[in-house]
Amino acid sequence: METMPLNPWFSMWLHPRRTIRQIVETNPERLVLSLAAVGGFIEGLTNMASDSKGDDMSLRAILLATLIVGPIMGIVGLWVGGFLLRWTGGWIGGQADSRRIRATLAWANVPLVWSLLLWIPAILLFGLELFTEATPVLDASAQLAGLHLVFSVGIGIISLWSFVAFLHALGEVQGFSAWRSLLNSFLALLVFLVPLFAFIGIAIWASR
After folding, report:
1. Residue 3 within any structural domain of the chain
2. Structural domain harbouring 143
């Protein structure tokens, strides 16, 4: 009996392995750049909020910077991550090529795309205080503070679930478990960070 095709906008939440299998078997390049760009934008919002960039920037500047820089970083991360995950994955038995890994990285952003349903009203409700350390308006209203907590927890859970979906999807294309996918991700991060920190250390030493 032929099974119905999955809708990846929904199935990526609960069936990431089956979803990514369907995607890479049909069109692994479908919407990859667009999803990477949107994912980069949302990651940019998250970073702006966690770093309290609103202490030094206006809301308009934050949104403009995130709209410009976020998608660029998302696409760069797609290509760099695809290469590093393929390379380090090969050390532990990974079978996927870079194209399939890029599809995995991109489509794992589906939960993050849905998080825009929280980000947009949160920005409209809380404005700049979503990105600042001091929140006098929120502190003066128990209702707003409660809503802020709900939005923050919701966005945090979605971000975590996106990473879990990514690990399972990566395991599917690489041919191993989600736990080995976590190792694959750690190795890729290590390969990226060690030369970076070495370069920064050398630059600091040379500037003395």
Report:
1. no
2. 16-206
Q: What is the mean pLDDT of residues 128-153?
A: 90
Q: Supply the pTM of this predicted model.
A: 0.88
- Decide if pLDDT at 85 tops 50: yes
- Over 60: is that where the pLDDT of 46 sits? yes
User: What percent of the chain has pLDDT above 90?
Assistant: 82
Count of domains observed in the chain: 1
Q: Which of 115, 144, 127 is nearest to 60 (CA)?
A: 127
Domain-located, residue 9: no
In a domain, 7, yes or no: no
- Residue 128 token pair: 């700049």
> What DSSP assignment string belongs to the chain?
-PPPPP-HHHHHHH-HHHHHHHHHHH-TTTTHHHHHHHHHHHHHHHHHHHTTGGGTS-HHHHHHHHHHHHHHHHHHHHHHHHHHHHHHHHHTT----HHHHHHHHHHTTHHHHHTHHHHHHHHHHHGGGGG-S--HHHHT-HHHHHHHHHHHHHHHHHHHHHHHHHHHHHHHHHTS-HHHHHHHHHHHHHHHHHHHHHHHHHHHHHT-
Query: 156 in a domain, yes or no?
Result: yes
